[in-house]
Amino acid sequence: MPQQITFARLTEVDPAEIAAHMSDPRVAEHMPLLTFAWDAKAARRFVAAKEAHWARDGLGHWAILHGGAYVGWGGFQREGDDWDFGLVLRPDVFGLGHRIAQQALAFARADARIPHVTFLLPPSRRHLGALARLGAVPAGEVDYDGARFLRFRLETG
Question: Maximum CA pair distance of the chain?
């Protein structure tokens, strides 16, 4: 039986573990906004920023656990009228991405606040078949904090 995937608050993860994850160059490869070095202090700032979204919107990014162990973070962040879905996994568990996305999107479909989900990917991402398999369709490009992203949209209703 496969190990269970669960979602927890980022506050439940040791900041040093988040910093180690985000310091891996394989993670940064497709994250144009990742322009600084990560340490425990940066991880605490990151967690505080993500917790502010929870306080403001009642939803935000989770710590993702596989068999109880931290494997990354992701979830939904309100961006204007959109709920943007992000997923950042440790490289050793990249293969769990589809399973985690399916579980998160099931959550979105059951939540009346989320009529659709957007995905922002940097143009460096060439393999976009997983988004098509999820049912997401291209929805143009956007500039976010000075970086260009490909935008995809998935209706959840």
Answer: 44
Q: Annotate the chain with three-state secondary structure.
A: CCCCEEEEEHHHCCHHHHHHHHHCHHHHCCCCCCCCCCCHHHHHHHHHHHHHHHHHHCCCEEEEEECCEEEEEEEEEEECCEEEEEEEECHHHHHHHHHHHHHHHHHHHHCCCCCEEEEEECCCCCCCHHHHHHCCEEEEEEEECCEEEEEEEEECC
pLDDT digits (tens, 9 = 90+) for 96-133: 998 999 999 999 999 999 999 999 988 877 777 888 88
Output the pLDDT for position 139: 94
Model confidence over 69-90: pLDDT tens digits? 999 999 999 999 999 999 999 9
Q: The whole model's pTM is what?
A: 0.92
- Which residue segments constitute the domains of the chain, with CATH numbers given? 5-116 (3.40.630.30)
